[in-house]
Amino acid sequence: MAFYFGNLVKNQNLMKKIVYHIASSIDGYIATPNGGVERFLMQGAHADEFQQSLNGYDTVLMGRKTYEFGFQYGIKPGEPAYPGLHHVIVSGTLQFDSNQQVQLVNDQAVEYITHLKKQTGKSIWLCGGGHLAGLLAQHQLIDEVILKVNPIVLGQGIPLFAGLSSPLTLQTAQHKQYKNGVLLLKYEVIKSIDS
């Protein structure tokens, strides 16, 4: 399901949107220090709606640790984690041959993703991790943030945005609370005029 907002720059409507759509703890972590997500609620209406929302994307964008997380479930380097979505993996250390389903970007990630946004199609799902989100936010490439805030406090872990050196201004677009305590928060990223 795609969401559109009236305050976006006109020519931005012609570009693909990058949506950072991710689960978070109340204190702003997307995983434990070792990358674990076992504390997050994986079942319930919020999870069902999330699966349905994947129809609004044609591309999934992720960093190395997020991609490698799938290896424990049998995914091998170069294989897609989400069938039906084109994968873009950003990593300076992973090595595998790109193919029609999975593109490895070892360098010039900002330039590659800027070009990717100019393509036609559905939105791009940024599914992690925190360092990649910080990099893209720093370059004003993220258009929306959708958080599935879980009723947990991790105290430490991988932050939503790592390495972000300037504030990110958001405008609340929608919120929803589920019976299990998960809170869905949708934000539009307010871009600076000189971007």
Structure description:
This protein is of the alpha/beta class. It has four helices and ten strands, in the order ββαβαββαβαββββ. The chain has one domain (11-189): Dihydrofolate Reductase, subunit A. Helix content is 17%, strand content 29%. The strands form two sheets. It has an eight-stranded mixed β-sheet.
Reported by name, the CATH topology is: Dihydrofolate Reductase, subunit A
Name the structural class. alpha/beta
Q: Estimate the strand proportion.
A: 25-35%
Total strands: the figure is 10
H/E element sequence: EEHEHEEHEHEEEE
Total discrete domains: 1
Shape: globular
Low-confidence stretches: 1-12
How many helices? The count is 4
- The percentage helix is 10-25%
